[in-house]
Amino acid sequence: MELEELVEKFAKLGEKTVLWTTVFAVGLCLLLIELAELLHQGSDFLEKLIHAGVYLQKDEVRPYLWFLSLFGFLIFATVVLAVLLLHAKLNRKTLGASQNSLIADLTQQKAGLQESNRRAQTCITAMMTAAIHIRAQQTPDASHTIKTIENVRIIYRISKDFSADVIREYTVKAAGDPLHFWQSSITPSSYATPAEYLDDIRFQVLDITRPNEPAPVTFLQTENQPLHKSVCIYFLPRLEPGDPARVIQVSYKWPGYFLEMKNSKRENIESSFKTAETTKSVRIEIFLQDGSGGHSVARSLPSFTPTPSPQPRTFKPSGMDTPTKRKTSPRTSTNTSSSPSGPPPKLASRKKAATGKAISLPATAL
Length: 366
Hints:
Number of domains: 2
Shape: elongated
Largest sheet: 7 strands, mixed
Number of strands: 18
Number of helices: 4
CATH topology of the largest domain: Immunoglobulin-like
Structural class: alpha+beta
Strand order of the largest sheet: 7-6-10-4-3-12-17
Radius of gyration: 43 Å
CATH architecture of the largest domain: Sandwich
């Protein structure tokens, strides 16, 4: 009955299954036959080797010297192989323990670095808070502006990857009261690549009043966000009313600063500052590296003029160039777009923000 059931089950199998099962069974049988043949040959060889390695002397079986040497070599090789296997096993255990110890050490070091980084962040935050308190203590009255910015020059050098080298130059002098410091901020568009620290954007402040002798300027960071940085730039010694103006240069290289222009073919550039007296000129220069895929076209948007108020003023859209001698907060805004085709017009590669004229900027190499 069991045999009949087995035959029925076998008959229910598919043709391919039966074929592959038959091939496997035949192959296994052939392999076993070959193995048995090899074992038989090995047995014959061993028997011949033993007969060749021994001889009879006075009815006693004695081995030849070469046979003893061969037998001793086999024993020695077996012992050596066993020792090597044992040594490898011990090494694996030791290596596993070493790896576990190394992983534990690395984990501990990582935790230490994370804790050190946390303490450093706490220290930096405390220093920025202290700088903010110092700034607030030194200027408790924010109802008037104590500096005059005579001239402004801002240069944007746009790379093919739409990163930007930015140079901002301000001619600053004290107006009425001693000037200890100046708050400056950087805020690119949301398209820009976030930067964790000022070192990541190569932030630098120089006094270039003497162009041939630039001097580093002391500053303290007051805000540190991925897309917003603020610093207090200190005038050491302080600027007294009547002192000659100083030229302060702020420079940085921000990755992806103009990625909005790459994605949407346009980008607004704004610059704002407070000044007690009229700013003589605000100049924005834009350079686009060759090979960027097009040329730039810049247009001045309406400038901002002050509203009558004794408080520090925010400019409202009005005429293109309306000077004032009241305490104001000039703000310039430039719209820059990138045209994907067409030769660049032969116009100047820079613009004066107060002119309000639309000009095309050639693709000038950095």
